[in-house]
Fold this protein.
Amino acid sequence: MKHIAAILLFFFAFLSVNAQIIKPVNWSGTVDKISDKEYNLVYKATIDDHWHLYSQTLPEGGAIPTEFFYQDEALSNDFELIGKASESESITKFDKVFQMELSYFDNSATFTQKIKLKNPNVSQIEAEISFQACDDTKCIFESEIVTFQLKQEKKNKIFDPVQWTSSVKKLNDTDYQLVYTATLEDKWHIYSQNNTEPMGPIPTEITFKDNDNKDYQLLGELEESKTVTKYENAFAMNVTYFDDKAVFTQKIKVLNPALKKIEAEVFYQACDDEKCLAPTTFEFVNNLDGTEAAIKTLNINATDLEKSKALNLGVTGWDKYEKEEVKEKTNFGIFILGFIGGLIALLTPCVFPMIPLTVSFFTKGAENTQKGLANAIIYGLFILVIYVLLSLPFHFLDSLNPEILNTISTNVILNIIFFLILAFFAFSFFGFYEITLPASWGNKMDETSSRVGGIIGVFFMALTLAIVSFSCTGPILGSLLAGSLTSDGGAMQLTAGMSGFGLALALPFTLFAMFPKWLNSLPKSGGWLNSVKVVLGFLELGMAFKFLSNADLVKHWGLLKREVFIGIWIIIGIGLLLYLLGKIKFPHDSPLKKLSFSRISFAVLVGAFVVYLIPGLTNTKYANLKLLSGFPPPLPYSIYEKDSDCPLGLNCYKDIDEGITAAKAENKPIMLDFTGWACVNCRKMEEQVWSQDKIYELLKDKYIIVSLYVDDRKQLPKDQQFKFVKANGKLKNIKTIGDKWATLQTLNFQNNSQPFYVLVNEKMELLNHTTAYTPNADEYLKWLEIGLENFKN
């Protein structure tokens, strides 16, 4: 009797839809390599709206669970399963159809099966998925085969992270709803149609074809599903994109009863965190009766064929060079910054004097040494816990609405509020006024800790410290909070930063309790503590202008162009330098009798930093200020008008034939720079890597640079436009400059992502392996030098 309800429901649903094929779940499979023998097989399901896909674990008599099957022979000889397949978070609710609690997935689901190879020569694994999906009125029971490719050819670097599907829904006798769905691989996204800024990313556009005779009418605007919005430094603007899935919906009214199909074309660009693909198109043909549309067959003429052949450069030398793997980046910096912030907070007048007092209370006031030590350790632990707890509400906001932290980061009003708050904190540190929480809070916590005693009393002691020290720790925490909310990491970065801050603040209380004699080595409290506060005030003021700059960039007010921003930082740096040298005083400063060694040393560092900033005011390659990358406005947001449309003012060619001619004339190697106007990491490479002295000189004097913009939408002259036959037999219209260079890259280098760099001579012989995003300047320099040496030889 198992699953009888599901089978009956499936049977009646089948009758009710008149044998119409329904496919509410689309499956895809990817492979994550763990080691040479271990892999994760990742199944990803994209689920249509109002449909549910069921979990692997369900109670008896309910829906049919999702299951994965593998060939017995393959399990015996080729690989073994490591544990059961894990699955993404599901929803558990009472199901009206089956009258029981069931776990299911909405919108998308991910299943991961770890395997270990027995046969090292296995190149692919085939799996069958058995699953059931239901909506409120019907269910389907299906199986689908997914093939996982474990090993790829080294030259095959063609990415296809976007899979398009389409469907038609009849609303009444004349009205239809067209739905176009893009399923995106993990970490990839395409952009909203609402990205309209000329210098922003390529928006997704859907156009409808062959409607000159007004066979149908578009009803309303093209609607799109939920998006993510964030501020992107590379574009100096808000960027809106889709994660996981993008759904576009267009209603139409048919005016011609004889109309049988609707043709449309989508133009889009896909990017991940490190690379962007060239903009491309995908064509849809939808029969209005819901049946599958026949694939159009198109012919290519002799002229188009000749032009297609011209894109083949005849590149040789692949056997000599292999592509190096790009190392993954880690994100540990925010914890370290939080830890440093905690160490700085220790040196403020609100916290530093508390260390010997609190440690003495635990070590001398306890019944015995061991209990005092235990209480001190618990006290430090509670300090850490309190600061971590402060970040938890932001996790709730993040889970309630994943876009809220990105919205905060790009909100002009909130960035201005952050600017005002940090400036307010700065002048508090200068000593013009004091910011404190109500004294009654600290008194109440202190009374509670004395009354309850024990571990609970220790907790309230830690809470008392957090409250009474707020006037010093609050501004530091405010900077940490604002910095986390205006970054991509959101709540997780905030927790990491708070953890680092709490750990640094807690360590001294524990360590000095363990080693009481160390207290004798602590410097005495004095005027130097106020000096620390004033220095922090200058730092807070500098940070405040970062948030004002964010608002300025979003709105393009032009108030804080890059050079203006750097000039303000120089003024703040000079003010800090004068303070350290005793030329400026603030309300609570003690008389400065002489300059200490530490004060002079710090003044030297500040002076050096000011000198480092000065080239940022110029219009030269030294204006890059790599150490501050991401803090000042980007290089293009400048008061200077650029004299060259080539990166960093270097000489470059925008046509490959012109580049080859120059290379022959000057006897130099060529660097093909496949780039894009909307390529984030292309700009990072140019600003942070190409600007390095040795690399800049090599590119300027030793190489011919050919920059080919794959997203250049300028139309080619009519006589240069043609149709190109792709590897899958489909035709691609080469209408724009970007179409031409994107196709040339894919055809010759089996790669369609940017940035992408190739070193060749004028005969199109490779001089080194190809490379992509390489943030390590030393590695990139070595790559260029090897190419130059091979050219000479």
Summary: The mean pLDDT is 78. Residues 527-555 form the longest helix (29 residues).
